[in-house]
Structure formats: structure tokens, C-alpha cells
Write a structure and sequence with these properties.
Helix content of chain A: under 10%
Order of helices and strands of chain A: EEEEEEEEEEE
Order of helices and strands of chain B: EEEEEEEEEEE
Largest interface: A-B, 25 and 25 residues
Oligomer: heterodimer
Radius of gyration of chain A: 14 Å
Structural class of chain B: mainly beta
Number of strands of chain A: 11
Largest sheet of chain A: 6 strands, mixed
Shape of chain A: globular
Number of helices of chain A: 0
Distance between the termini of chain B: 37 Å
Largest sheet of chain B: 7 strands, mixed
Chain lengths: 113, 117
């Protein structure tokens, strides 16, 4: 089955700096890669996603890049703000395996004011 | 749009009893719903895929006789933890994908905190 690894597990940045979270996946058939933000005690919320036919996608301060050959994808947050502090999860999904999401282990991001 | 609810939000039960958790898609139909388990400060572990009108598909290592899943309609899936034990205490969270958008975003419920005493 699919195996998704995520690094780093914790990340602290100064407000205004950039944050980068990286994930790798094992199943070459995976074709959809969402990123979720989970604040303490709350449900995961989709913040950005990318499909395998695209190499990069950007939405304001958030961007995701995908390297299909290397089977890795990354989340980039620029101009970080304290409200960006949360746990971020990457996931991989494939139609071949029923569209289930296999999540990474999560990154706890702290933005220091 | 795309709101998913879960009930109850918290439940405490005694060992040996069964607990039912409901997952509803409020403003869309979902042919497929997913059930996850999340331990404190850990990732979401997929337990099973709930398919409307058919049997659920369980991930390896998840006991289907212990975690009963019923997806009776396009807006409701239920997870029943049977003969609960303290080690079943966890945060259970469901998600749903709008019908016709399979393979795309999943919308998560708020989760259910189960404590087995």
C-alpha cells in the first residue's frame, strides 16, 4: 500500500519568514495530493491540493510543488503569520486504491511573533 | 457548503458496551465516506472506507467485527465500536467526498472523542 512520509515533525519560524514542509510517497499510481491544516481540537481543513498532471500550484501565500519522478511534494508558506500555527498534514490518494487518503505523520508549525 | 457533522462529539462508556458514532454530510450527497482514528499529536490513520449500499472496506489490521460500519444512505454513515475496551479510547473522525468528485477533496467532520472506562 501507499506510504507517505513527512518532514519535519516540528518547525518553528519567525513571523514573516517562510516555512517549507516536505512529503514523499511510495505508490507511483497516486495522483492527488492534498494538504490539510488542523488546529488544536478542530477538524482538518483543506488548504491546497495538487493533481499529478500539474507541477506547481499557488494560492496567495501558500504554494505546493510536485515532483512525480522523485515522488515528493512540498508545501510552501510565505510571509508566515501567528495564525498559521497549526499541524499540517500531507496526503496521497489514488483511484486505483479507492481514492482513500494516506496521510503523512504531520508537522507542527509554530510561528513566533 | 460541504459541511460534515458528527454525533456525538464526546462519549464516555464502560468496558464491554457498544458505542455508535454518526457521520452526516449536511449539504451534499456522499457515495463514499471514510473513517479515521487519531491519537494525540499523531496523524490520521485510515480505518475503513464506507460505501453507500455495500460493505465497507477495512484497512489491514482493523477488525471489522469490532468496528461495524453502515452506510445506509447517501448522507449518513455510522461507526459502531462493539464491546469497547480502554484501548479503543481515541479520537474518531470521518470524512466525505461529494458524489461525483471521488478522488478529490475530502471534507472532515469535527470528530468524536471516545473514552472507555
Amino acid at each position: 500500500g501507499e506510504n507517505v512520509e513527512q518532514h519535519p515533525s516540528t518547525l518553528s519560524v519567525q513571523e514573516g519568514d517562510s516555512a517549507v514542509i516536505k512529503c514523499t510517497y511510495s505508490d507511483s499510481a497516486s495522483n492527488y495530493f492534498p494538504w490539510y491544516k488542523q488546529e488544536l481540537g478542530k477538524r482538518p481543513q483543506l488548504i491546497i491540493d495538487i493533481r499529478s498532471n500539474v507541477g506547481e500550484k499557488k494560492d496567495q501565500r501558500i504554494a505546493v510543488t510536485l515532483n512525480k519522478t522523485a515522488k515528493h511534494f512540498s508545501l510552501h508558506i510565505t510571509e508566515t503569520q501567528p495564525e498559521d500555527s497549526a499541524v499540517y498534514f500531507c496526503a496521497a490518494s489514488s483511484r486505483n486504491t479507492g481514492n482513500q487518503f494516506y496521510f503523512g505523520t504531520g508537522t507542527s508549525l509554530t510561528v513566533i511573533p | 457548503g460541504a459541511v460534515v457533522s458528527q454525533h456525538p462529539s464526546r462519549v464516555i462508556c464502560k468496558s464491554g458496551t457498544s458505542v455508535k458514532i454518526e457521520c452526516r454530510s449536511l449539504d451534499f450527497q456522499a457515495t463514499t465516506m471514510f473513517w479515521y482514528r487519531q491519537f494525540p499529536k499523531k496523524s490520521l490513520m485510515l480505518m475503513a472506507t464506507s460505501n453507500e449500499g455495500s460493505k465497507a472496506t477495512y484497512e489491514q489490521g482493523v477488525e471489522k467485527d469490532k468496528f461495524l460500519i453502515n452506510h445506509a444512505s447517501l448522507t449518513l454513515s455510522t461507526l459502531t465500536v462493539t464491546s469497547a475496551h480502554p484501548e479503543d479510547s481515541s479520537f474518531y473522525i470521518c470524512s466525505a467526498t461529494p458524489h461525483g468528485r471521488e478522488g478529490r477533496e475530502q471534507y472532515f467532520g469535527p470528530g468524536t472523542r471516545l473514552t472507555v472506562t
